From TrEMBL:
Gene3D superfamilies listed in its UniProt record: Glycoside hydrolase/deacetylase
Residues in coiled coil: none
Highest taxon above the source species: Bacteria
Pfam families on file: Polysacc_deac_1
InterPro entries: Glyco_hydro/deAcase_b/a-brl, NODB_dom, Polysacc_deacetylase_ArnD
Protein name, UniProt field: Polysaccharide deacetylase family protein
Taxonomic path: Bacteria, Pseudomonadati, Bacteroidota, Flavobacteriia, Flavobacteriales
Organism, scientific name: Maribacter litopenaei
Annotated ranges, domain NodB homology: 23-204
Length: 213
């Protein structure tokens, strides 16, 4: 049976850092890199002197390797978001999950020399097979406590209101670098964080763990 990541039922995920000293949050992006929207995300983060964490899909890294390398070059961190992001991922056995995660990690190691240890489950789904794979590979599962719902029908204002009403220091925010709407939300979010004197750092800095082995 599948469970949602925040329940920490099968798999212990890190969803926030309530004990953080300093006004820090972590903006995370799933499903990239995207040729149109990831460059916009990088540009906005640079403009507002913010850092993010990009949980990338292996097949997208394969398609856009230079863009993936640009994320790292800009000082952001990267994590494993499976290779295929298949709709059937929750039905994969442990062996297939391990293969997916290894394939993405090997790709990144060859491209950047980095051995990723941060993992974000596709669709936020966890189950015993995924839990076993994560344990076998010694990954850290990273969740969130502020979900933007930026991939739903909600408009820009509704998404922004949802995020800002829930964001406080130590929060991990979930966005996607895959749409124009998300990028519009990101810009307004970065303005909001600046006004509230909240700084976006990489997720491993927020959680005080390692991003790479």
């Amino acid at each position: 049976m599948d469970f949602f990541i925040q329940w920490n039922y099968h798999l212990q995920s890190l969803n926030s850092n309530k004990k953080i000293t300093g006004n820090k949050v972590a903006i995370t992006f799933d499903d990239g890199p995207h040729p149109e929207h990831t460059p916009k995300a990088l540009s906005l983060l640079k403009k507002y002197n913010a850092k993010g964490t990009f949980f990338c899909i292996g097949k997208n890294i394969e398609k856009y390797p230079e863009l993936f390398q640009e994320i790292i070059k800009e000082g952001h961190s990267v994590g494993n978001h499976t290779f295929s992001h298949s709709n059937a991922f929750g039905f994969f056995g442990t062996k297939k999950v391990v293969e997916e995660l290894k394939r993405t990690n090997n790709l990144v190691k060859n491209l950047s020399g980095l051995q990723m240890v941060l993992y974000r489950p596709a669709f936020g789904v966890t189950n015993p097979s995924i839990a076993r794979a994560v344990k076998e590979l010694k990954f850290r599962s990273i969740g969130w406590n502020v979900r933007s719902l930026d991939t739903t029908f909600r408009n820009e204002k509704q998404i922004l209101d949802r995020i800002t009403s829930r964001t406080e220091k130590g929060a991990i925010l979930l966005l996607h670098d895959t749409s124009e709407k998300s990028m519009a939300v990101l810009e307004r979010l970065l303005v909001f964080l600046e006004e509230r004197k909240l700084k976006s750092v990489t997720v491993h800095q927020l959680l005080q763990i390692k991003a790479y082995a």
